[in-house]
Amino acid sequence: MTTYRKPVSNTWWLESKPYFFFVIREFTSLFVAGYCLFLLVFIAKAGDSQEAYATLILSLKSPISMVLHLISFTFILYHAITWFNLTPKIMVLHLGEERIPNALIAGAVYLSWGVVSLIISWLILGG
Amino acid sequence: MSESFELEIFRYCPEQDTEPFFKSYEVPFREDWVVLDAINYIKDEIDGTLSYRWSCRMGVCGSCGMMVNGEPKLTCSAFLKDYPSRKIRVEPLQGFPVERDLIFEMDDFMNKLTEVKPYLLRKEGEEKPLEEGEYLQSPAELAHYKQYTLCINCMLCYAACPIYALDSSFVGPAAIALAQRYNLDSRDQGRNQRQEVIASHEGIWECTFVGECSVVCPKDVDPAAAIQRAKVSSTLDWFKEMMIPRSKGK
Amino acid sequence: MSKSNEPVLWLLFSAGGMISAMVFPMLLIITGVILPFELAGEVTFERIHNAVKNPVVKLVLFFVIALPFFHWAHRFRFTLIDIGLKPISFLISLLCYGGAITGTIVAAFILWRI
Predict the structure, then answer these.
(1) Pairing status of strand B87-91 against strand B4-11
(2) What is the CATH number of domain C6-113?
(3) Which residues 156-185 on chain B approach chain A with CB closer than 8 angstroms?
(4) Where are the transmembrane segments (chain A) (predicted)?
(5) Cβ–Cβ gap C2/B231 under 8 Å
């Protein structure tokens, strides 16, 4: 008996909104890696001389740096939000018969994110 | 003046054609009709050659799954009135070989259901004889796996999963959720036996958490969560086995 | 037994994902806007310089950079496979995890040298 198999194209992810945003979410990893490379440059310059560090800070004022930062921020923010929203699915906790609501777990994760962000800025920028 | 509703339906008659085609039908529009009602009307009044599966018509048997405008749906639960354009495209569930019209081959799915050993397994020597009565379970213990018992095997999750569409060797959402239903059941001791299928490359590790399976599930089984949780427990297992080679978890 | 060794890679992916999600947004604001435009007053070179030379900070920075590299490697590998590159999946794994390992080594090197 001949069955029919509908061919799946490599652009399957362009065919529906959920699929499209899924691939966008996965592509945020490129910007994560990109920022890692930037951080290495930043650390190398910061550990070098005052001139090297100052040159770097100056270049961070350039339009290119601002655009790259903005684009990276958008994608990495999307990564963070989708990551935190999915955490309750992985962390399923029960209290007796009741399941701890997803919103509570997500809330706790977002709160941690706020606290961590504050600690980072306090550590780097000073009190 | 009564409205009409158009259905563009995927047809495939292997004894006559080598290629599938779409055929349009016009049915009366009724406020309370679902897509299945329209398809039954076509079969009864317009074209008796149309072939499809259905049974309970109330969302519990899982037979009538089809793609409606590219989305996997139970056609007994998709109301015509929710499509204001008064036109829909109906196709067989994505990801499966089509036998005829809207009927697809389910063999792969059925095999996978049996592969995950969907029954209570006890360790050697720990089976209770019948005279000792049943295995007791508290409501709290039931709550741990109850959600995963609700699957009606409708396969909408497989149709929604792009990974399964690309590679049908993927064990898939419903089968893994079914395995979790037993793994999380306090009366079961067989998690290790299921790991060979679940923790394989074609099992949980092929899933990239697209999450559409859970979105389309008509019973809120949330197979995506079942798979991610299995990733966590399998990772813990992996480390336990590395540290203590002879120690195997439940 | 076809039990996979993916768990390690998945753990690295998860750790890197959580770290990048928690830490990178704030860092982006700091390096993108706050430091260049001095929005938090003057943050001296000495402060930053001494911070990155601190061994505890170096250890933290190592993980903050290395783990997200592995997050990228694992996620990008699957994405490339899903958009049609399955036939060269072995090559993709090599390039992705190789890239992450390289990035990790470079990070260790830089942190060691400063």
Answers:
(1) parallel
(2) 1.20.1300.10
(3) 162, 165-166
(4) 20-43, 64-84, 104-125
(5) no
